Amino acid sequence: MGIEGNYILPSQNLELVEGWGMSSDAVAYVFRPSTLQGIRDVFEIARTSGRSIAFRGAGRSYGDAALNSENVVLDLTRFSRILDWNPDTGIIRVESGVTIRQLWEYILPDGWWPPVVPGTMFPTLGGCASMNIHGKNNFRVGPIGDHITEFEILLPTGELRRCSRQENPDLFYAAIGGFGMLGCFITLTIRMKKVYSGLMEVEPINTPSLDAMIRIFEERMERADYLVGWIDGVASGKNLGRGVIHEANYLKPGDDPNPAQTLRLDYQQLPDTILGLLPKSILWRFMRPFVNNAGVRFVNLAKFLSSRILDRGGKKFRQSHAAFAFLLDYVPNWKRSYGVGGLIQYQSFIPEAHAAGAFKEQLTLAQRAGFPPYLAVFKRHRRDDFLMTHGVDGYSLALDFRITKKNRRAIWALAAKLDQVVLNAGGRFYFAKDSTLSAPSVKQYLGESAVRKFRKLKEACDPDGILETNLYRRLFQSPEAADAEPVEHAR
Ligand SMILES: Cc1cc2nc3c(=O)[nH]c(=O)nc-3n(C[C@H](O)[C@H](O)[C@H](O)COP(=O)(O)OP(=O)(O)OC[C@H]3O[C@@H](n4cnc5c(N)ncnc54)[C@H](O)[C@@H]3O)c2cc1C
């Protein structure tokens, strides 16, 4: 397609695009090319029409990371071919629109599993690389970027550049986690993890307080493959931060009497009905009456007490990889139970030494403001070498807040207070989950030299500055972003 002159964008491409949490949206010109030339054409269309471009994978980021109001959204979901797979080495090469689901379903029957997955199987690998996602095993294996050996990225200049730890390393370490601001991932080469069964061994551990939860994480992280904590965000006083940890471990060769069976896909699929009767697709409607302060109090208490009863039996059980990894996919569209205003997730990352104090303070602030989180998930992390990293040697707490027309302003005010707790503790934030951060806070946690280096790389890769998202404008281009004095701090 040749494009000349002042191109006017076609109105039939106008669509309403939402952040996954449904609390932010944008009207944008959406293009869904299926070839490299098609992507180049969209670059050209944007340039000649004076619009910016945001890349979008599956749109699973909670906030505005893949939105671009009144500009172009370049949707990569048709870029979804698996290009090369070697079941002897576990190295796979994919197009960037391949989803986590496509990936695990392709490799598991050969005895492999993705080394890092998020809590849902729908994101694309381009989106995951762009945010440098972490799993429940981050403390053990690092983020997905630690397992990417090479990628090809199309720069807005039209150049297709190959990057690895040896070739263009600066771009390698900045584009992974670079939230789509340096170029478009075209292909990714990733190393998979060998598994000897389709099952994991899972152990639930009831924890009466946040201190107890942290103690158990620290004790077990040397040997556990996965650790994740659910926290009762409503419990206060001496019960503040109580919850349940799930530890999961891969089975060793010989532990599974029938790996040929458990590695089959039909063994992994999440069932379509509850108790064989109720279609799961309508389950969110039954959850809706419980998505309020009183309902969540009741559900959390029931969950905590039932786990305490089970804990007495010290029960370990075996669960498929998919069921353990993608628990959040078990109820389709569960986000709709939050109502039309949707939800935001506030996830912050705090170094280990300050984690207990900072997260107790956050939970107390939220409860006192009348907004206890309706879901709270706790994970252990480690540091990594990527420029825009959210990784710390410490913990993250992800808090889900329901958004309504009435509470929106108050939740944003609460988030600003929570930010202060994070900054005081030397913590970090994560763009995939963000809706509320301000430009000065971003400069402060990333530090001056990282922001400067990132801006320099952006100028080199995207000299006309055509790559933007709503998140980028909010955090890097607002007047506050220019004014804010960056503060250097040790990580
Ligand atoms: C229920 C749920 C659970 C989750 N659990 C976790 C979790 O456990 N851990 C975790 O880390 N995250 C988690 N996430 C967040 C999710 O993994 C990230 O937001 C991921 O980036 C989504 O991928 P996507 O394909 O939907 O990308 P999008 O959300 O569409 O885009 C994300 C970013 O990637 C950019 N982008 C997309 N494709 C490309 C490309 N080809 N080239 C360059 N840039 C691109 C976009 O511009 C945007 O900045 C969860 C999300 C949900 C909804």
Report on this structure.
This protein is an alpha+beta fold and 491 residues long. The protein folds into 4 domains: 11-75, Uridine Diphospho-n-acetylenolpyruvylglucosamine Reductase, domain 2 (2-Layer Sandwich), CATH 3.30.43.10; 82-194, 2-Layer Sandwich (Uridine Diphospho-n-acetylenolpyruvylglucosamine Reductase, domain 3), CATH 3.30.465; 199-337, no CATH class; 438-491, no CATH class. Helices cover 32% and strands 23% of the residues. Strands 17-12-14-13-19-20-18-21 form an 8-stranded antiparallel β-sheet. α12 packs antiparallel against α13. The protein is globular, with a radius of gyration of 22 Å. Residues 485-491 have low confidence and may be disordered.
